[in-house]
Amino acid sequence: MNNTLNATHDPALRSWVASANQAGCDFPIQNLPFGRFRPTGSSEGFRIGVAIGDQVLDLKAAGLIDTDDMNVLLGWDVARRQALRAALSEGLREGSPRQEAWGRALVAQSAIELAVPCRIGDYTDFYTGIHHAMTVGSLFRPDQPLMPNYKWVPIGYHGRASSIGVSGQRFKRPQGQTKAPDAAAPSFGPSKRLDYELELGFIVGKGNALGEPIAIADAERHLFGVTLLNDWSARDLQAWEYQPLGPFLAKNFATTLSPWIVTMEALAPFRAKFERPQGDPQPLPYLDSPDNRDHGALDITLEVWVQTAKMREAGEGAVRLTRGHTTEAAYWTAAQLVTHHTVNGCNLQPGDLLGSGTLSGPKPDEAGSLLELTLGGKQPVTLPNGERRTFLEDGDTLILRGYCERTGAVRIGLGEVSGTVLAAA
User: Fold this and answer.
1) CA dihedral sign, ordered 142, 148, 154, 159
2) What is the pLDDT of residue 46?
3) Sequence-distant (≥ 6) Cβ neighbours of residue 324 within 8 angstroms
4) In this structure, what is the dihedral angle of CA atoms 44, 46, 49, 54, given to the nearest 10 degrees?
5) pLDDT at 415 over 80
6) 7-114 and 123-422: same fold?
7) Which residues are catalytic?
C-alpha cells in the first residue's frame, strides 16, 4: 500500500511559495495534488498542474513532463509517480535552486479555470457508507434496512461519465417520472426531492488487462488518488425507478468533482486501521490482507455547506450543514473496491472513477445527504436566516469540503466541490 512516509511528508518542510506555508492551507508542500488548468477566458488546451498554496505549477513549463494528457500520467507505474513527487517536493522547498526557473512556471489560482481533472472513461458508484445504507434502508424497509449481501460484497452500479462536471457546475433540475403512494398512475415533471450525496472519488491509475483480476495486495498500486465527489440524486425519481435494476435517471443528470486529485502518496500520514464491528462477518479471503486491515482506511474529515439564493443576494456566505469522518462511515476500503471490481476479469483503465457512495457518520449531524438529515423530508432543516430545507431548491449552491489532520503531520486539504441547482428546463 502507498502508506510509506518519506522526506516529502516531513512536517518541517516549507516551500518558497509563501502561501503554501500558511496555517490551514489546503495545498502545503506536503500535499501536491494534480489538476488540469488554463488561463481564465482562454481557448488554449488544458495543461497539467500541481497546486501549491494559492498557485499552480505548470508541470510542462517546469520541464517535469512532456505531455498535456493527464491520463498518460495516471498510467505511470508507482515508482515513476513517486519519483515525480520527490522532484516536485525538492524543487518547491525553501532554498531550492529551482526557485527562479520554476517561479516562471507558476500561475495564480485566481487567474485560471479548472477542468475535470482527467478524462473519465467509466464511472462506478459504490455504496460503502453503512450508516447511510442503514438510515435510508430504515426509511424504505424498516424490517430489513440492510439487504443480506451488504456486509459480504461491495455493492455498486455503473454510473454515467458523460454528465460528470467540475466544481462550479450549474445544472438544471432533472425531470422524470414519479409516483405518489396513493396515485393510480405515475406523473411526469421536475423532481421535488433533489438531494446531494457526500462522497469520495477514487481515480484509477495504471489499469489491468481484461481477464486479469487485481489482487488486494496490489490494489492500491492501481489507484492514483482521491477527489471529492457529489453524486446529485433525485430521490422521487429514484424511488419509482430503482427496482429491479437500480439507479438510472435519478443519478445520471449530473455528478460534480473537485478539480484536484490528492495522490495516495500524499495521504500516507492519514491512514487508519480497517476494522469491522464486533459480530460482523469478516471479508472473504480475496478481499482481505494484513496491510488492508492495518492501513486500509483513510482518515479524512468531510463537511457539507449550503448557500441559498436568498443568502447570496444578501451577501451572506455559506453555512455548514454537517461534518463527519471517513473512518466512521466507510464499510469497505478503496483497495477492496478495486479488487472486487476486477475479480471477474473486468479491466479498469487510467482515469476510471470509483465513487465511494454516501459517507455518513453515525450521528445526525454527520449525515451525507438531506434524505438522512431530514429523515426523508419529515424534519426540515432551519438555516440561520430562517429558511427551511427538506430537499434542495432552485438557486441553492451545495459545497463539499475535505481535509486531513493528525498530530505529527501537516494538514492537507482536498479543496472543495460546489454545484448550483437551476430551474428545470
Assistant:
1) negative
2) 98
3) 198, 301, 302, 359, 360, 361, 363, 366, 367, 368
4) 70
5) yes
6) no
7) 132
Domains in the chain: boundaries:
7-114, 123-422
Residue 140 has pLDDT above 90, yes or no: no
What pLDDT does residue 143 have? 82
Which CATH homologous superfamily contains domain 7-114?
Fumarylacetoacetase, N-terminal domain (2.30.30.230)
Lookup result for grid cell 452500479: 157
The DSSP bridge pattern shows strands 412-422 and 169-172 to be: parallel
At a CB cut-off of 8 Å and minimum separation 6, what does 345 contact? Answer: 210, 211, 212, 213
Q: Which of 258, 255, 337, 247 has the alpha carbon at shortest distance from 292?
A: 337
Question: Taking the CA atoms of the chain, what radius of gyration do you get in angstroms?
Answer: 21
Which amino acid belongs to residue 11? P
Question: What is the phi-psi region of residue 343: left when phi exceeds 0, alpha when psi lies from -120 to 50, beta otherwise?
Answer: alpha
CATH class, 123-422 region: alpha beta
Place of cell 432543516: 381
Residue 136: the pLDDT is 87
Single-letter amino acid code for the residue at 350: P
Confidence of residue 1 (pLDDT cuts 50, 70, 90): low
* Region of residue 95 (left: phi > 0; alpha: psi -120 to 50; beta: else): left
Report residue 215's pLDDT band, with 50, 70 and 90 as the boundaries: very high
Residues in the chain: 425
Pairing of strands 388-389, 169-172: unpaired
